[in-house]
Amino acid sequence: MSQQDNPSVLPEAPQDEPATVESLSVNAVIEALHEERLEDLKAPLLAAPPAGLARLVESLPPTERAQLWELLDAESAAEVLPYLHDDARTSIFEEMEDSELLATTEWMEAQEVVDVIDDLSDERGQILIDSLEADNRARVESLLAFEEGTAGRHLTSSHLSIRADVQVDVALRWLRLRSGVAEDLDCLWVVDPEGRLIGRAPLAVLVAANSSALLSEVMDADPPSILGSATDHEIVAHFEQYLQPSTAVVDEQGLLVGSIEMAEAIGLLREEADHSLLKSAGLDEDADLFAPVLPSARRRGVWLGINLLTVLLAAWMIGRFQAALDEIVALAVLMPIVASMGGIAGSQTLTLAIRGLALDQIQSKNIRWLTGKEFGVALLNGSFWALVIGGITWLWFRSGPLAAVIAAATLVNVISAVLAGVIVPFALKRLKIDPALSGAVILTTVSDVVGFTAFLGLATYFLL
After folding, report:
1. Alpha carbons 217 and 284: distance in angstroms, whole number
2. Lateral strand order in the sheet of 256-261
3. Phi, psi of 247 (to 5 degrees)
4. Rounded to a whole number, what is the largest CA-CA distance in the chain?
5. In this structure, what DSSP letter does residue 20 have?
């Protein structure tokens, strides 16, 4: 059997090539951690690209995630943190001592430090700010002056501005003296004596221009820019319209305050896509697939409550005609509640599972942990809302046995639907069937069949 056929085998990188995260599967990492083969992981993990390593970290249950994080040095951790979703990053911060956190942020850009501070408590955030060197602290505080979710929070530290009356050869010599910043630049921003943005001078144009020409003669006048108060959505729309490697950010008076790179806009675009997908199921785009049970239950429980209101409205409308109806019709009135509660609980899990499969976060070695976690979420939310539904049923029909039957059926259906939300997409992928297309159909069938069978079966046994 080849290593490709057996993903639990930790492959060895070729001697002439550095190991990368692509040479490690989630299964291989979990198995190596369980067998305490930590030395086998250190070299490939430290050589891995930060974005791929962040995805690997997000694919691990809490215990294995903490073990893996211990293997990273401060510099590697600093490179990985900006790529993690908020929930996953917060879970790591909770395990880090202040000294570890400070050592890690020493390797980070000011913009990345601000993202860290946003995820910390006010007390820990202030400790971090106070520990920074004066120049870096001033930079961080200037970014924190902008509201979260605005262009001012995404300013890069590698922009340079210059006066329009400077000659091209002088500008190029000045640029060489700032090679540490210039390596990430695509242009110089041209400003007037007051610092207002008046032009953009691409580096490719400067290199080819007459050395004695003034920047005002070769620059692109009145380049498109955005306000520091622009929203993340407006940033994405701006880059979609102008397709430039970077764009200038100005204040209300037109003064240049910095620039944003296209790479940042691409990251925001991905967040928007995740937001649209997960919000359709009442979930947060920064939700951690392997977060503990309690925060996951709280996050999803609210949406279950909203769904309960909608199905109660439908049941109330049917119940308006119950004057001449007996207890059997009361069961028909309440049936949609059981099926719908299971359906919404299962769809939340299904959405997260499909996303995890699409990002290769779910594999055979972590599916058991994920299934157990989802069972815990279903048990908590199912029990709570079963009691609520049972209470409403008792107030409505004044029947204790009927309230007990619908409460038990609701709990059974929520648990079965949530488990189906994990197992169904994983099984479909194994069968080479797209879970995004057929997962919801199967889940709905499971929810309806289990819900109606449990409710009517219990009612038949205990009430008739």
Report:
1. 49
2. 225-227, 246-250, 256-261
3. -135, 150
4. 98
5. -
38/412 Cα distance (integer angstroms): 42
Residue keyed to tokens 């297309």: 437
Residue pLDDT, tens place only, 185-220: 888 999 999 999 999 999 989 989 998 999 999 999
pLDDT digits 0-9 by tens, 269-288: 877 666 555 544 545 544 55
Q: What residues contact 13, with CB distance under 8 A and at least 6 apart?
A: 19, 20, 23, 43, 44
The H or E element spanning position 191 is strand 187-191
E-strand ranges in 216-283 read 220-221, 225-227, 246-250, 256-261
Q: Tell me the chain's radius of gyration from C-alpha atoms.
A: 28
E strands, 302-396, are none
Do residues 460 and 409 make contact, with C-beta atoms less than 8 angstroms apart? no
Q: Cα(first)–Cα(last) distance of the chain, in Å?
A: 59
Domains of the chain: 21-148 (1.25.60.10), 161-270 (3.10.580.10), 292-463 (1.10.357.20)
